[in-house]
Amino acid sequence: MAVQKYRLVFSRHRPEDPGTLVLLSPADTGWNDFGYNFHATLVVSPNDARKELNLKAYCIPVDEYGRPIRFATWFEENWRARMRPFTYRSSGFLTLLATDDAYSKLFSWCKSDEEYRNILLTINEITWLRENYGFDAAKFRKIIGSEAFQVGVLRSAGAYRAYRDGFHFGYRKSKAPVDVRKPFSFSVQLPGFSNEHSLDFNYKDLELIEDRVHCLIGRNGIGKTQVLRKLILSLAADEDKENPFLDVHDSEYQNVLTKSSIANPYSRVISYTTEVESALPCGSRADTVFDYQHCNLSLPFDSGTGAKTIASMLVSLVRDDEGPRNKFNRLGALKAAVLPHIDWDSIALPVKKDSGISSISYNGVDWIRFSTFASLNEERLLKASPQVIQDIEIGHFNEEGDPVNVSSGQRVFLRFAVHFLSYASKGSLVIFDEPETHLHPNLISSFAILLYRVLAQTKSVAIVATHSPFIVREVPSHCVHVFQSKSRGSVEISTPYLKTLGASPTSLSLSIFGDDTAKKYYEKLLEAVAPTDLPIAGILQNYGDVLSTDMLIQMRSIIEKRVLNAGD
Predict the structure, then answer these.
(1) How far apart are CA 236 and CA 264, in angstroms?
(2) CA–CA separation, 532 vs 56, rounded Å?
(3) What's the CATH fold of domain 184-305+408-511?
(4) What ranges do the domains of the chain cover?
(5) Residues 6+ apart with CB under 8 A from 154
(6) For residues 554 and 549, what is the distance between their CA atoms, to the nearest angstrom?
(7) In whole angstroms, what is the distance from residue 127 CA to residue 141 CA?
(8) CA dihedral 343, 345, 349, 354 (to 10 degrees)
(9) DSSP label at residue 346
(10) What tens digit of pLDDT does each residue of 274-300 get?
(11) 92-102 per-position pLDDT tens digit
(12) How far is residue 165's CA from residue 244's CA, in Å, rounded to a whole number?
């Protein structure tokens, strides 16, 4: 059945008029947002048995020059001129629902996706126009960038999240904020293998240890990344019957639908990779139920990947400081994670010319130190936020304002920390494909500390595919899955016999990989020394600065045995 189009009317009461209507009227008229007020009540009135839906919103009328006008004033002037409910040209106003949850309520109330879109279009909803239908681009940027919008609309964190996530949030299924640390099993038949990859993700109730991270470890070509890919597709298939991914072929998705979909308890799935070309899906469409975020840590966030820049996410971490998703200080967690590796005060945000807030000018760009930005009072922060250039990356500067070089490992770690703290929500599944790339062992330890902290705070879990024993030593052995190749293309997945949590990387490497190459080279060296007449003093003189203490002890033992045998 065709969906009736809605008609927008500015009125406090439904007119004696049949049909499907949306009513907008002023609300909280005594409220003062630093001299502005765009508060509105939005009523969706259907022409069927459903009850009317009442939502809080913001309505931003604009004059002929694109300057926002106080909504209550504009409403009363137009009402007095007509003395009846009125309509208005679509180019003369914009609306934004007051919270991200309001979009979810509207979507749940609607009978179809088409009705949801129709209502958003009818009310000139900002985030929908921004991405789907269009609005005079110059006029739109002028409204969004105005002090009136930034201060009068985006003052509350709820409105800021609504503007950031907007209509996307409506498509996501509301799931109870429960702890997703629950066992599950997953099996998949991968091409090139004679048997299935079967995994059991179990957890133990340990008083001091929250075992929220599982590791998949094994040699290259054993199927770790492909298992993660199929797991993501299988979780999506539980919620979307149509392919939600941007880069997954429909035939592959349909095959997953018929063979391997599993129940999806997670509110969001977030995946990370450090490979330029990854087998993990690169993202999902906005109009899908499955909430999937992908981040390639090796690519700049403004390189066409569709991801937000670090600058935009840092602004969000400062602005999004309240609400149910933030039970802990995310900005404080970021600072604690970054401080051991990067000078916090060196991080700087690019800002517009003549913004009045910059303290550094370099290479034709003005910058404000992030620590300064984060400490601004409410009004100054609201006015400063639109001055940040959010489509280029951050900079690093010393006290004198000279640029500071950061290593690839530091850059990757900062990208991960900022993105993870921006997107981790209650009940998420976080997936990593080889996070150790670019990371020094010390950074891997900080990675693990931050990962565990955020997972515990958000009641989420993670699965990590890795080659690194430095990652595995951060995980108890019952959460480690060793992939091993067997005869005739089969694969075996088992837990290691060694207790992994806190074990030495050398022991883990020997236990999991066997270190066959190192062992053979070690044996060749011993074989080369054994038949010579070189005394231990000569070995120390020639090779003492090259060979390890363990190696020298073994050689001394060989020489002593040789001397004893010669004496016999």
Answers:
(1) 7
(2) 88
(3) Rossmann fold (3.40.50)
(4) 7-171, 184-305+408-511, 310-396, 516-567
(5) 160, 163, 319, 382, 385
(6) 9
(7) 12
(8) -150
(9) G
(10) 887 889 998 888 778 899 999 998 876
(11) 889 999 998 89
(12) 18
